[in-house]
Design a protein that fits this description.
This protein is α/β, with parallel strands linked by helices. It is about 25% helix and about 25% strand. The chain starts with a strand and ends in a 10-residue tail after the last strand.
């Protein structure tokens, strides 16, 4: 059995607030919760949008905060991330691609694949031919191992109109590739700051709320100009994976009021 802590979208800033929210307080609360209750996890994942304001300073300082974790954290790229700062300050596995921040982790008879869907200058996601070719190799190398994929951008529309406009652009190429293999067991995505779950071409997927601010449900309708985070507490998830089964336990790790300064 593999136990994973799944966290996403801390939108860390080394100083200041985002719409009255102090993202440092929320990240620290998450790490304290994990250390207190889940220090036995095999690893943790931070599924993108680590920073967003002052890239250099934010990576330098979030790296210091992440050292407080008792559990090894694997970070992946989101739309707000930047590869140079990401590589400079964060700890990455030896298997990381040279040009993109994609890597694999082997754990208890399963392969965990971490993708880089960042598209420079865009909030939408990209998986270029080089990244897709790397993924194809990762799926082919150990065809009998189940593969669990973590990525920032969803490869399907989730019924969240403003966010569906900034999903993964090469969604069909990605889905054609993974359904051409029979070992992809589950997809885990960040980006939308909301928990959703379902299947895409028969493959189960889940998204998760953010460590920082949450996104509203699709009704009543909203757009980026009217965007107003709901008064929902942040969440992480505890994943239990083994013998082909996946359990996702969404967990509130602190009160909504933590980090609210505005
Ligand atoms: Fe985000």
């Amino acid at each position: 059995m593999t136990k994973i802590i799944w966290m996403s979208d801390p939108h860390f800033q080394s100083r200041g607030t985002i719409d009255g929210l102090n993202p440092r307080a929320r990240l620290d609360a998450a790490l304290a919760y994990v250390n207190a209750h889940h220090a036995d996890a095999d690893f943790a994942v931070l599924s993108g949008d680590l920073v967003g304001d002052d890239i250099e300073a934010d990576y330098a300082v979030i790296a210091q905060h992440l050292t407080k974790s008792a559990v090894r954290i694997h970070p992946i790229m989101g739309n707000n991330d930047e590869r140079v700062g990401f590589r400079k300050y964060l700890t990455l596995p030896d298997t990381v691609m040279p040009d993109f921040i994609q890597f694999t982790v082997e754990q208890a008879g399963a392969r965990f694949v971490f993708l880089d869907t960042h598209k420079i200058g865009s909030h939408a996601g990209r998986l270029c031919t080089a990244r897709l070719a790397w993924l194809g190799d990762a799926l082919r190398q150990q065809p009998h191992k189940p593969v669990y994929i973590f990525m920032h951008h969803p490869p399907l529309a989730l019924g969240l109109p403003p966010q569906d406009e900034i999903m993964l652009e090469e969604h069909d190429d990605f889905l054609d590739l993974i359904t051409g293999h029979d070992n992809v067991a589950h997809l885990f995505m960040g980006h939308v700051h909301r928990p959703t779950a379902g299947t895409v071409r028969g493959i189960p997927f889940a998204t998760i709320g953010a460590l920082s601010f949450q996104a509203p449900p699709p009704s009543p309708a909203w757009d980026w100009d009217s965007f107003n985070p709901p008064r929902e507490a942040p969440q992480l998830a505890v994943l239990h994976i083994g013998q082909g089964d996946v359990v996702v336990q969404y967990t509130q790790f602190c009160e909504y009021a933590v980090g609210i300064e505005g």
